[in-house]
Automatic annotation (TrEMBL):
One Pfam family of this chain: Metallophos
Domain Calcineurin-like phosphoesterase positions: 3-185
Protein name per UniProt: Metallophosphoesterase
InterPro entries assigned to the protein according to its UniProt record, in alphabetical order: Calcineurin-like_PHP, CNP_phosphodiesterase-III
Keyword field: Hydrolase, Metal-binding
Originating species: Paracoccus marinaquae
Annotated TM spans: none
Keyword Hydrolase on entry: yes
Annotated region described as Disordered, given as residue ranges: 263-282
Length: 282
């Protein structure tokens, strides 16, 4: 079995300080083979916020890989944003903005989908899809980790990242199995399998630490890959109470190139205001 912890949207600088210890405890208790952070490590890309984020990552007792999100470029410092948008991330978190890691039977391909010129809308840059296809291992479970989702629920009317549909189609055909993303501050796991790409399971994490009340809760995921099976543990910490609740578990199996959700329970209802929250905070 290979265990991956998926965190997203930490937003250091606008984060729940009271939850940091509990989050670290849960992450380290999981004894993961790899921790994947899909962007927005900071709220405004400021040096002090990057120092806080780097200090947090240093307390994780597992290998960590991270890609930038749109909040990791300096929004208001225009010269810096256009000339050296990823300087803060590179210095504090890692110079490789699209790292690749192997862990057990899993291969995680990182992608920097942040566009300093449009700031909120993401982009899959020309040549990146070919690079990613070249990184797919036919013997591994292949995972793409990026900030902006490649698919969205119909209720989300934000623009998808440029070339997201092409990336999903071509990478799915090339053997990609899972996408890890964030950005919307809204959980979705398996809700898009019926939307034309049943071979690629997108796990979209909510925000792990952002303190905006409209987000209503913080959360992260623990993924256990075993053969063709995948168990997803969702750890939720409602803002109205202290710490994390016991995790919920979802089960999936892959066969014939298609993922199947094994849980027949009712769909998780969308939180009131969650779509609005996605607009304001992502
Ligand atoms: Fe974002
Ligand atoms: Fe975010």
């Amino acid at each position: 079995m290979t265990r991956i912890v998926h965190l997203s949207d930490l937003h250091f600088g606008l984060h729940r300080g009271d939850l940091v210890g509990a989050l670290l405890d849960r992450i380290n208790h999981a004894r993961a083979d790899l921790v994947v952070v899909t962007g927005d490590l900071t709220h405004r890309g400021r040096p002090g916020q990057f120092r806080q984020a780097a200090g947090f990552l240093a307390r994780i007792n597992a290998p960590v890989m991270a890609v930038p999100g749109n909040h990791d470029v300096p929004l208001y410092n225009i010269p810096l944003r256009f000339a050296w948008p990823f300087a803060g991330f590179s210095e504090a978190i890692g110079a490789d903005l699209a790292p690749t890691r192997a862990a057990g039977t899993v291969r995680v391909l990182g992608l920097n989908s942040t566009d300093p010129f449009s700031w909120q809308r993401g982009v899959i840059r020309r040549g990146e899809i070919d690079r990613l296809i070249g990184g797919i291992d036919p013997l591994a479970t292949n995972i793409l980790a990026l900030h902006h989702p490649l698919q969205q629920l119909p209720a989300i009317d934000k623009e998808l990242a440029t070339r997201a549909p092409e990336a999903l189609r071509r990478l799915g055909a090339a053997g990609l199995h899972v996408v890890l993303s964030g950005h919307l501050h809204l959980w979705d796991c398996g809700g898009l399998l019926a939307c034309g790409h049943p071979g690629v399971l997108q796990i979209q994490a909510g925000t792990a630490l952002c303190s905006r009340l409209g987000d209503r809760q913080n959360e992260f995921a623990v993924l256990d890959f075993a053969g063709t099976g995948l168990t997803v543990e969702r750890h939720v910490a409602p803002m109205a109470q202290e710490g994390f609740q016991p995790p919920e578990r979802l089960h999936f199996r892959r066969g014939g190139g298609v993922w199947q959700a094994l849980d027949q329970g009712p769909p998780v209802p969308m939180l009131p205001g969650a779509t609005d929250t996605a607009f304001r905070t992502a």
